[in-house]
Amino acid sequence: MALLENDDLAPIGVLEGISHRGRPWVDLAAQYGVTNPDPPWKVTLDATCDILAAESCARIDGRVEASEPVLPALERRSEEDELAATVYAGVPFPERQLLALAHSLIRRGLFDEEELARRMERVHERLTSA
Amino acid sequence: MAKVLGEKKGAAHGHEGEHPPAPMVDEVSDFEVLEMAVRELAIEKGLFTAEDHRRWTEYVHSLGPLPAARLVAKAWLDPEFKKLAVNDGVKASLKVGVDWIKSPPTQFGTPSDYCNLRVLEDTPKLKHVVVCTLCSCYPRPILGQSPEWYRTPAYRRRLVRWPRQVLSEFGLQLPPDVEIRVADSNQKTRYMVLPVRPAGTEGWTEEQLAEIVTRDCMIGVAVPKPGVTSNVKMPVHRAVHPLQHGHS
Amino acid sequence: MSKVHHDRTHHAKKATGIGDPQCFKGEAGKPKFKAGDSVRIRDLPDFFYTRCQTYTRGVVGTVTLAVYESPAAEDEAWDNTDKPEWFYSVKFRQKDLWPDYPSAYPNDTVETEFSERWLEKA
After folding, report:
1. Does the beta carbon of B230 lie under 8 angstroms from any beta carbon of chain A?
2. Which structural domain range is residue A100 located in?
3. pTM of whole model > 0.95?
4. What is the C-alpha to C-alpha distance for residues B223 and B229, in angstroms, rounded to an integer?
5. Which of the following is catalytic: B62, B112, B135, B168?
């Protein structure tokens, strides 16, 4: 069972940075007068959480192997609760759900901080070029 | 540039004869970038495919509380359907277009919602209210995504311990001899409440009835009332960003 | 290194169109308890993972329903799905759960589910 240990709840640099400087939807919506209660990425985030909690079957060299979910729902939610009370205290919802997900995935070694930082740069570039 | 369209707000500004543009969030937030980056990395690492993710997004996007409201309205109008709803929630869901098993992309239910809906029938002497103390399980396929307050440790820990206090915070008070039954969905069953049909709704159509059955009524923290078609306004306990300066 | 190909085909137990917990129907044999039975929640040791809430341990309640058959959550978490159990919905009086629950509300209850291993006759 891949429950995180205490160490794993320690801050992760890249995510800490986002939690401090990122502008949550509650502020953006207020500033721009948008009344949608949720940011547009909330639905895709929920889909990601669902899909990571699902069992899947992988075919490796012709054998079908049932694989465990990458991140079961109960584990993800427990970690989210812990992180929301500690490292990401003060971050609104659903931003803290997103940060907790990224945190859980990094701690499980599915990608690392540097990879995430690099990818974020590329995504930011793509979204802000005209 | 990523933009989000919102509803119109406030008076027109700008040129005569032109409709003001709908408000849009005109900047890219770090969170928007983070969500996309996480998703792309996950796809690259083979955790899921882009196509699977698109299908799940479509499914999640399709979920909302209307089918559950219609189930309640139908149960109020038809005693036979009410019996079906109470005895076999999954079968009754089919009548409002919700297939707990085959609607999700897995064709097998979702990993967190499973396929065992129980509809809890209130009576004048029995009031149900739903919680998941372990993690915030919720009957999403028929009721849509859960509200934020439902997921908080504050609600989850307090409702099972001090239900009357929590309900009064939602504006709901019940006589002391009424049985308040807290249903804690800790395993594979997902619960929704079938509230008592209120007075003043005689002769109403299914549509009219469904309109007053809000999401909060089906969680059990509110009761349906003629004329009330929106959820309870919670006091806003938003976490204020610690480094915010100068924003309203 | 061989490429992992993710396939949405489900393995034998989970045929599409059947659903969970429906797919375990008939696998748990005869239920030990029935509606109306008085049961006590056993305080079994938790090996890292359980769905049996602490607040119910040692408390006596009444079975309202035998709900479905499924592997116990504690087994399913470790991928042991060979021995499904019957699951029961059990109702407790609030005054039995919390000694200081206000006596002004004598009828309040909590209802929640347990797999058979967690219950003993009371």
Report:
1. no
2. 40-128
3. no
4. 11
5. B135
